[in-house]
Design brief:
Distance between the termini: 34 Å
Structural class: mainly alpha
Largest sheet: none
Number of strands: 0
Number of helices: 17
Shape: globular
């Protein structure tokens, strides 16, 4: 069912929308963690490092796909907020056409370039074959990444953040079963973990598509609405491509940093992999806040209500601060025990490095909260291109760490690379929001004057 976020308490709406999203993200990370847990315990540290070494290039490509889908959903949310149902359906149809095109092109290109990328990243010789076996299957599954993320983004743009979560939970449970089956029973190694992930996401995507088709009468398209339209496609690309590039530009810095970590050795890769997996789990609330603010901002800008945008921003920042403090407490109490999910207690050196990595990162979590909240809000307001620069600032910070700091200071520099990136992004994003708000206020004032 659709949810109108232009009326009611912003705090209640944000919480009501974000909590189901959070559960979905947690389960998404949960089955990613299951891959790492099973791989680490049943296949060994080298196999864990092989999967971990693909993390940044995985985010580079899959992040682009997810960003494009989320960007396509912004005009849909804006038209829903403005109650323009015909335009909404045309945007939905053209987003589907574009998703098919992007899925085919991206899959072909990255599959061809997969091994050269791993070589350029200086992936250690003892793990590069395992890394390739894992990531090539993930890349061949890009069409199902588009299927799930596009259908889920459309549902969220209409205010339904619960349904995608339900299907994602089902997929997560299936993924656990398939992991165990492929790795332990069929002895498929890291390839089995990748196959389990792709199959599970495909099922979640098809379930979202079927539900959307059957339950949302607002999405019943006429023959004319289903047609390709260059104007609608151009606006969707204007939103989606910058949002996808934002993820990829951010990931380029991560690739540079990962290359520097790879140069330290497979033990360092394993430590960052374990710490990063735990970190991704703990970051889920920030991702939920970001996605919530994209929909909230899109609907309220569509309704022409900037006052509610301000109220939502304040409410979400407060939630971000509260959670940042809570996460700091959690890690300092049970952080080492959580890391034992991925590492054996006997790997004491790797375990301590992983713990240092997550502890240092978590001290700066409120800066990360601001990155997600403000960046996605700016995108929801229709300024995707501007938000790309935040990704460029993150890329610059991680690039500096990878090129200059890690070669001189080793693993200690790795600890501060992410916090440095978040601070760089906020230095740009905070003034950018006030600039965007000023521009948007002028646009809305002119529209009111024309209507009068």
């Amino acid at each position: 069912m659709e949810k109108d976020m232009t009326k009611g308490s912003p705090m209640k709406l944000i919480l009501g929308f974000a909590v189901p999203l959070l559960f979905g993200l947690l389960f998404q990370q949960f089955y990613s963690m299951v891959d790492a847990i099973i791989v680490g315990h049943y296949l060994g540290v080298d196999a864990l490092a092989a999967v971990g070494a693909t993390g940044s290039v995985n985010f580079l490509i899959i992040g682009f796909c997810m960003g494009v889908c989320n960007g396509f959903a912004i005009p849909i949310a804006q038209e829903f907020g403005a109650a323009h149902e015909v335009n909404l359906r045309k945007y939905v149809a053209n987003s589907v056409w574009l998703s098919v095109i992007f899925a085919v092109v991206v899959t072909i290109v990255v599959s061809i370039l997969c091994r050269p990328i791993l070589q350029v990243m200086r992936t250690p010789a003892n793990i590069i074959d395992g890394s390739y076996d894992y990531i090539i299957i993930i890349f061949l599954g890009i069409p199902v990444v588009f299927l799930y993320n596009m259908t889920a983004a459309i549902l969220r743009s209409l205010g339904d953040s619960r349904t995608p979560v339900i299907f994602l939970v089902m997929a997560a449970l299936l993924n656990i079963f398939l992991d165990l089956l492929c790795i332990i029973v069929f002895q498929m190694g890291v390839s089995g973990a990748a196959i389990a992930t792709v199959v599970s996401q495909a099922i979640a995507g098809f379930c979202c598509l079927l539900y959307m088709w059957k339950k949302f009468s607002i999405l019943k398209l006429s023959e004319e609405e289903r047609r390709w339209n260059w104007d609608y496609a151009a606006k969707l690309c204007n939103m989606g491509i910058p949002m996808g590039l934002q993820y990829s530009i951010t990931a380029i810095g991560s690739v540079v940093l990962q290359s520097a970590v790879n140069g330290i050795g497979s033990d360092a890769v394993a430590a960052v992999t374990a710490g990063g997996k735990l970190g991704m789990l703990l970051m889920c609330p920030f991702d939920a806040m970001g996605s919530t603010m994209a929909t909230y901002g899109g609907q309220n800008v569509g309704a022409g209500n900037l006052k509610r945008v301000d109220q939502g921003l304040k409410s979400c920042c407060l939630l971000g601060l509260i959670y940042s403090v809570a996460a700091l407490f959690i890690v300092h109490v049970v952080g080492r025990q959580m890391l034992l999910l991925f590492l054996d207690a006997g790997e004491s050196g790797i375990l301590e490095n992983a713990y240092s990595f997550i502890c240092t990162n978590i001290l700066f979590y409120f800066w990360l909260a601001l990155v997600n909240i403000i960046r996605f809000l700016i995108q929801g307001m229709g300024f995707s291109k501007l938000a790309v620069f935040a990704g460029a600032f993150e890329m610059l910070a991680r690039g500096l760490a990878g090129f200059l700091l890690v070669p001189h200071f080793g693993f200690q520099a790795v600890l501060y690379a992410n916090p440095l990136a978040w601070i760089f992004a906020d230095i740009f994003l905070i003034p950018a929001f006030f600039y965007v708000r000023k521009i948007m206020a002028g646009i809305l004032d002119r529209q009111k004057g024309q209507q009068a």
